[in-house]
From TrEMBL, chains A, B, C, D:
Keyword annotations from UniProtKB, A to Z: NAD, Oxidoreductase
Molecular functions per Gene Ontology: nucleotide binding; oxidoreductase activity
Name used for this protein in its record: Gfo/Idh/MocA family oxidoreductase
Sequence ranges assigned to domain GFO/IDH/MocA-like oxidoreductase in this UniProt record: 140-287
Highest rank taxon of the organism: Bacteria
Alphabetized Gene3D superfamilies for the sequence: Dihydrodipicolinate Reductase, domain 2, NAD(P)-binding Rossmann-like Domain
Domain Gfo/Idh/MocA-like oxidoreductase N-terminal: 4-130
Length: 390, 390, 390, 390
């Protein structure tokens, strides 16, 4: 079991989640594929960086992320910054031959994503984009059912990602509302998770037809805004323009003939992290709601007529990743577990010299879908989605 | 309290539901606006007609629906036939000065619907189209909340109507799969209910952008098919072509700026009568699921932060129509109650010399939306919805 | 198909529910076992009686319930009065050879119930006590599963009946709070329904161990109180003593070795008609909640480990009584349907010369359980339940 | 921020959960009250101990738990062994002046628990018993509502803890089925969690009245059985006697006049970690289900009548411990978070020189309740619960 040294760039919420994953992964999956060593953490401000190191259990800290890239002892670069920094860091890390895990979305646009993908695709490194929600055990179970043919051929997919944290018009103009940093709004921030799951569970998108809405066109400026590594600071003062979407609604044509839709908004009062999908197949249906993420609902058409209905399956040892997680279903899958599993699969790929999904190719393909959605909304028409595999 | 004589045309499932409503309405709403008298029922086969009269408590029966139109003692004509007969009967009834309640959809097309609307619009009669689900007390409560401003300005609407009764490719080619009788498939049969609720709760549609799918292109022919009044007979034999949609998915632009979507399918294993909507407003959200129709979920943004969340309100005496229904919430609203309330409002309009909604204008407007959906799916583009009020 | 003339005594909420059942039963179950004719309705006040006749569709009315007993044209006596009148009316009806359906609980005490049971037991009449909730299709489906052995040997039963309509200390001292009229409080009013279901699904009670609580010891007196037929009139003024229980909690030993508990209260804010049970067997579990009565949840231990979980079965045509009810599950079972099914089974027993369950023997056995519960609460100890079959 | 060195005894599932908590606590709660240092872990087998140290991130390992007690550098002793070792270890640790966190139940009996309590009560150490479920944020929120008077005076409490992992008669006779190691069955293993929550939320128990059932009287012997530190090894062979309860059902009288019940079983097919409670107060109700632990349901009687119903509150930043947990509700509380919060409160007490609840007094009081339950079941009568505070 080798030690693999990690350099983490970004000490915000995502830094926390990734640090937890590195500490906990071997506790859950043992023998571990490798032991992550929390070597160094970067934050723009050196005091904050030192503080983050202590908090998140890193040996060292730095205010200069490039020093991580330059450090020959670092095996893994973890990019947990705002979106606009992903490309520069990832390309540098790839050139330095580091394995890379990058927060989602891969970048602000398809073009940026392509540059990142080009940087890694011919190198002998493992690259991953952190669409963690597909690693919820219940989602992995849905994948297993589908691959086993348990619901037959898929006819339709309906996904949502509904939140309410930006429904308040007085919540600040954080970087997530600024196109220059975030690339897009609800689309890149949250819809991409559902798009990733749709690709994972159903298959490639051939075309999209979308509507983007900006419900709150301006928000209070933050005193400081986001710093270079994207930590959001509270702020007050005059209002600035929101130039990203608050809500995205799209119809989907899948390459395999299925149809679908995705709706994502951060303005849905009462919804918190409402990631859902409903999939209808010729032999059954699957329903998932992340807010009740220990559960997957599945209906098998082949069940005897007087006993047919959605089964509420609580994931546990009998289900994907169950060998590593908690000994009893419903003991409790939290957000942390999705990141712990993500780390497990990432380090396993490194240890075994393989690859992992979703990787930068997947991240780039999602970016192409995002670009098509933006174009579709502007043109008010269907737009074909280019395929990178082609 | 006057007696009003009803002639009911059609003795199938809808005949049963309407008969129940006529018998039960005064039991629930008392003093009743008027007393419906079940005078005569029509079915194409005279023996079946006589049988239906006994079963549904009608004084007389006939095999000739025109005799009902011609009978001066009949005040109300109730059209519970398959869709292709609606127009002819309704126009005849209108010309004879009868009050009319017609099952949904109003007709097969906008053109047919227009003829019906033209026939009633300048006459002194009450006309209604039986979109009964908006009369579920929980839906009426949603309307009340919206009118009171409790959820602010509406931003988005998402509706579904999912069933699974036609998911089996061996289920017969009943009239509901034949365009010449039904007009359309899931669109007219079930999506129209959600479209009606969307108009009722949010407002007029300005444009639609739709996909129609036919998942099972042919089905076993029935031995006899539907008779003239549409009662479906079981059958076997070779297969015939399905020329209507199994599934409809549409995006919506509302005139007031809100956006929305509707999905309806009869091929969703495990869904039975899954009529749902979720509405997000600037001040709150409302969620409804007919499969749990005693309940309405509502979230008020103004609730104190540590006590905020969807409230599950069980409708009862404190809610719309509660004065007539059961004395305690959750005693149980069934399908029958939606039709009893419908009858109540219809007869009240007659007794008071007023009008009721949804009427033929509403039915015609929904038909225009349906036509736009069909056109949009064919053109693969947004289509503007004409407004009859214009 | 014979006509059977019904005399209904009591024109309150229960009169409404029974009238609905008589009108609708043949609409649902056709050919009907018999056609109930709403012949005469009794209320103490002649004007109210006449009004009720019109409202509920009865041919005649009377202020003297004895005239119904004396009328040789009446085949069925329906007792929908407050509890204290059940025994006198039922015994008179039995002596007159009428078939009898009596609202629950059968009477105020075991002693009264015994007199009623003795009056009917050797006569050639059909007698029934109206524990309607066991006729919810989902409950009948639970019974079917159990009889098929699908959940194995039953180990435990947990039932509740929670309401909140008397949680307000200012709600009036209706007859339901007066021992002389009601016999007991939550125990006889609502717990008996769950006790009936426990006997139906699990088997006979051998012993009980109970706690009775009266949370609100006095309530406002009503101006008039209940009239002879028990219709509750609104009232104000000084407060009177509540001498019945607000809440009952009991443990149960069943004769077959299973254990159980029942809790019933009318002081549970937020609960409306929360009749629930959960049954654990050696091979599976069943869960029911009347507030979502279209559904039954069942878990089969024999399901494959990675697909095991509670199935949510929506009752419909494939389930008990489905041939008569609505054509699609979740179209909607309401309170009315439970009474329609009750009427169906009652009239079928008359038409076929058989008997029906729950009958007066069942009602008497439940009364013996109730008496044991009262005794147990007073003695603060286990009390054996006498068995009338012994 | 001081470092505090932890010696953990026991490397099974609980060892994992506690190790996670020590690693993650400062990541969540920052500045942390203190930094737990994972110093040494004990397991009976030295190879397993070394393996556990690597897996769980401890600096050292030992096969002799006494060496931890004797080590002056250890500040905190964490007891995560089977129940029969709790007392000996805890008493030794107390005598050595260590702070102690001990898994639940505190010990096998009240007598053992008393010895432990006596050992700590006059020492200047922080002691805690790990009833972690009360630290689920939703449970802490229930406590807050109750303390604020939001549901008034509590009338009744109903709690359950239902699992199904021992429903299979072929699951092995692990230490949890052996009285000499576990003390009791479902009672000590799981019911104690609910009893702890009942005391926490409602108040002291004055008397209990219980039934204990053993559904599966013998089970396959394990090849090796549990080792000294209780790690369960798979096994086969002949069957041995189960001498503990599979199911416990008890009624409760609380000192403040409320009534209650608790049911716990490990033989409930389809239930996984179904810890629930429902509390009725004079002004509202609270309902919790750990299987959906992000949510708390609360009904306020004071809500306007047409908007009253259970609110489903997803805990997050606006709720207890929200400052440290995830930035958005429903991002996901898992089992780990309950232990992270537990560690936070424990170390805060050490850092601040205070105490924490539940401590050994609470653990002892729960043991007295357990003993009373056992006695009640044997005597088949109510048994008063002694109060240690008296």
């Amino acid at each position: 079991m080798q030690n693999l040294n990690v350099g983490l760039i970004g000490g915000g919420f995502m830094g926390k989640a990734h640090s937890l994953a590195y500490a906990a992964m071997p506790m859950f999956f043992w023998p571990a594929p490798a032991l992550p060593v929390r070597k160094v953490i970067a934050e723009a401000n050196p005091d904050l960086a030192a503080d983050a190191a202590r908090r998140f259990g890193f040996e060292n800290s730095t205010a200069d992320w490039r020093s991580i890239i330059d450090d020959p002892d670092i095996h893994v670069v973890d990019i947990a910054t705002p979106n606009h920094l992903h490309a520069e860091i990832a390309i540098a890390a790839a050139e330095a031959g580091k394995h890379i895990i990058c927060e989602k979305p891969l970048a602000r646009t398809g073009e940026e994503s392509k540059a990142m993908y080009d940087a890694v695709k011919d190198k002998n490194i493992v690259h991953m984009v952190a669409f963690n929600y597909r690693r919820t055990p219940a989602v992995a179970l849905a994948k297993k059912y589908i691959e086993e043919g348990a619901i037959g051929q898929i006819l339709s997919f309906r996904g949502t990602y509904l939140q309410d944290w930006s429904a308040d018009p007085n919540s600040p103009l954080s970087w997530r509302f600024q196109k220059s940093i975030a690339g897009s709004g609800a689309l890149g921030d949250i819809a991409t998770h559902v798009i990733d799951m749709a690709r994972y569970l159903v298959g490639e998108f051939s075309a999209v037809n979308a509507v983007l809405s900006t419900w709150i066109p301006e928000r209070p400026l933050q005193a400081g805004g986001a710093d270079a590594l994207g930590t959001v600071r509270g702020g007050e003062g005059p209002r600035g323009q929101v130039d990203v979407d608050d809500e995205v609604m799209t119809m989907i044509r899948f390459a395999n003939g299925a149809v679908g839709s995705v709706e994502a908004t951060r303005n849905a009062h009462g919804r918190n992290n409402y990631i859902t999908f409903e999939i209808h197949g010729t032999e059954g249906s699957i329903v998932f709601n992340y807010e009740r993420r220990d559960e997957l609902q599945v209906c098998f058409a082949s069940d005897q007529a007087d006993r047919r209905g959605f089964r509420t399956v609580y994931t546990g040892p009998a289900h994907p990743y169950g060998e590593g997680l908690w000994p009893i279903p419903a003991l409790g899958i939290g957000y942390g577990e999705t990141k712990i599993i993500e780390a497990y699969d990432f380090f396993k790929a490194i240890a075994e010299g393989g690859s992992v999904s979703p990787n930068f190719a997947d991240g780039y393909q999602v970016a192409l879908i995002d670009d098509a959605i933006v174009e579709s909304a502007a043109k008010e028409s269907w737009v074909e989605v280019p395929q990178i595999s082609a």
